[in-house]
Fold this protein.
Amino acid sequence: MAAIEEKEKTPIHKQESFEDEKFDHHDDANSVIEGSEGVTRHEFDTLRHMPDRLPYTAWLVVFVEFAERWTYYGTTNIYNNYIRAPLPRGSHTGAVVDPGDRAGNGSAGALGKGQQISFALRTFNTFFVYITPILGAIIADSKWGRYKTIMVFSIVCLLGHVILVSSASPASLKNPDTAMGILALAIVVMGVGAGAIKSNVSPMVAEQYQGKLRKATLKSGETVLMSPEVTIQSIYLWFYAAINLGSSGAISASFLARDHGYWVAFMVPTGIFVLVPIVLFVGKKQYIKTPPRGSIILETIRVIRIALGPAMSFNPANTIRAIKAPTFWDPARPSSYAAGKAPAAITWDEEFVGEVARTCNACAVFLFFPFYWLCYSQIDGNLGTVAASMTLHGTPNDLIQNLNPISLIIMIPIFDYFIYPFLRRRGINFTPIKRIYAGFIVAGLAMLYAAVLQHFIYKTSPCHDNLPSACMSADKETLASPINVWIVAGPYILVALSEIFASITSLEYAFTKAPTRMKSVVMAFSQFQTALSSCLNFALTSVNTEDKFAWLFGSFGVTAVIIGTIFFFTFRDLDAKEAELNAIGKGNRAGFVDESPEKMKPLPDTTVL
């Protein structure tokens, strides 16, 4: 009895430490990996890992994302000109009606509010779209589940698109202030819908795959492992390809706006978005659906709040030491209190506290991403303004930004079928931390390229650094820099490459590092970093002017390289713990155990409806 009481007094983190406990059977090459179909540790270490076949329901979810992203980028890609530039000569819809302007450097426009207001409203749109995923995650986890949440908010998003079309009608454009108010309402409604979809569609696509680690024999006779981790990596590569295929499908928006006006350009994405609820309904009985499990986000916040309370101090150094202490999570553990003495706010079990602790450690990775998204955000509008100051030869300036998704569509299959398999065959472990670091470096190079380009535009534009995108003669004829607009392709292509390394890996990391019942939490937290990036952008509104673009791009480039390097040296030790982190929440313990029916039986965490 005394022994039992002594054990109960032992801190829980000492009993069940995820990282520190030693497993003697790890050294047994013939021990079976937990959750696999009889794969031994030796086979895991020596056989080549390959992606498994994806179920067709995953492709249905991919199509939903494709259609939703087409409609998102089919509107946001033309926001810059719509807000920034005035109506072209003789236009009532925003279209370029003068044949000479259309063949030359004429651009569509509507509201005429200028670069800074355009930047501010577009930045707010990005902020709002990436903060509302938290709302979607709470509703999905506590009330509806992911499927119903996506279905309901797709209707909300569709309503927002209808409002957007009305903002661009010729009647609305007669009063730019009225059109601006309707546009702001549309942005809010669409942001609620798209954000709530965003936090749920990413984990839902990966949940469609329920395979286990298993052996397979290829036609060549080679025995390989069908790896869930590699399969998830492949799923998110193609999921991201669908995002960018939808984005490149929005190429038509630039031509529609220039040739037919903005109400037509916004109407086409609205029609496409109708497909989203239809496809969701068609696959209703086939999708693997994760049922709601309670307010996971709210409970997570409460666990952190209770653990953080005793650690808080007016001395920041003391607070940091308390957070790093091994006893930090004890105030939130039920086992830290005598029977019946735990605070009423503690409604969870020991396992949940452990999941929160390990997930917080893993998700610290995402805290560096706002600086990456600062670089990415420049391709949404500022580089479009750069293009507007160059010689267009009849190319709409906001068309150029579609080079980013086109580049991704080309490069993703190359990475999935050739580059990543080549690295695996050569035994080169290009881990998530290394990939994300590479993404930061490439994004930084993209911004430095843009800074140099902007410098030469200042030198060659007739207006130099005095708003070269709006440079006109006395008779309103556009005066452009002689530099060909396609030279601006460099930053778009480099940012696309950086997305393969950083952005796609962040989706994969958010899914694989989250316990099953916390995937929406982690995905929402990952996407929240883009909202934080938008806040940083808001703070830089005063320098988001054309005469400061070279300085702005150069600063972002240097920052990305420095922050990326700090990121790598901060988290490079996680590479050695990759397998353990992937096992969070997937069983009682990460590691390798002897095969037995009770050990090999998977925990029921999803339901086929």
Notes: Residues 133-167 form the longest helix (35 residues). Confidence is low (pLDDT under 50) at residues 1-26, 587-609.
